[in-house]
Amino acid sequence: MLFDTHAHLNVNQFAEDGAEVIKRANEQGISKIAVVGFDHETIEKALALAEKYSCIYPIIGWHPTEAGRYSDQVEEKLIQLIQSKHIVAMGEMGLDYHWMEDPKEVQIDVFRRQIRVAKQLDIPIVIHNRDSTEDVYQVLKEEHVEDIGGIMHSFNLSPDWQERFLDLGMHISFSGVLTFKNAIDVKESAKVVPLDKMLIETDSPYLAPHPNRGKRNEPAYVKLVAEEIARLRGMTVEEVAKVTMKNANKLFRLI
């Protein structure tokens, strides 16, 4: 059984066939899927999916590309939902210097605020990092993320950076990027990540793994990520599945 620890089944790309997508995942042995809500609309949809499907676990937070829309009211709503619903992590939060929808200082402020909320509520966090590694690392270090831990989502960096984030108590989650032929750094990271810190995800509908690259991604394809880890590490897919399921269940406090 596999755990897709990061999917967006709550976006428009799945509006027409979400039920079939979940069924396909279950048939492929994906027994648990974390669905991430990152703004008002997707948070509500993540919660609705979790109500409907026992295999869905919601994660809620505020995406860095939405940082300019963060407010005291948004924060109060996140706190209320995390306290009243079965939310397994807070996120995805972080920094995005690729799209730069808001200035760096705005993104960093919203990032810090969410980490502090998560620490207050004692819940792990999920980190979005795009072209912002130095600042993401610095914020996590300064905010003592080791108190709650969390996930470096869709990790695509070198073993050196991996080691630095591991030293902060973070888990490393590999997505379809790992299967890309030119993803040398992340392949090297996957070879050496401690087994008890390793997770897998799809980031559906984005980053579909080879040989589906360029198509809509879906949770059923997380098996391809597990197969690539197994190939790189000389493990069986069953061993990868067992380890990553155990890690996710422990981090999300499902066991």
What does this structure look like?
A divalent metal cation 1 binds at residues 6, 8, 92, 203. A divalent metal cation 2 binds at residues 128, 153. It comes from Amphibacillus xylanus (strain ATCC 51415 / DSM 6626 / JCM 7361 / LMG 17667 / NBRC 15112 / Ep01). The protein is an alpha/beta fold and 255 residues long. The chain is built from nine helices and eight strands. It has a single domain (2-251), classed as Metal-dependent hydrolases (TIM Barrel), CATH 3.20.20.140. It has helices at 18-27, 40-52, 72-84, 104-121, 133-142, 159-167, 184-192, 222-233, 237-251, and strands spanning 2-7, 30-37, 56-60, 89-96, 125-130, 150-152, 170-174, 198-200. Strands 1-2-3-4-5-6-7-8 form an eight-stranded parallel β-sheet. Helix 4 (104-121) packs parallel to helix 5 (133-142) and helix 8 crosses helix 9 (237-251).
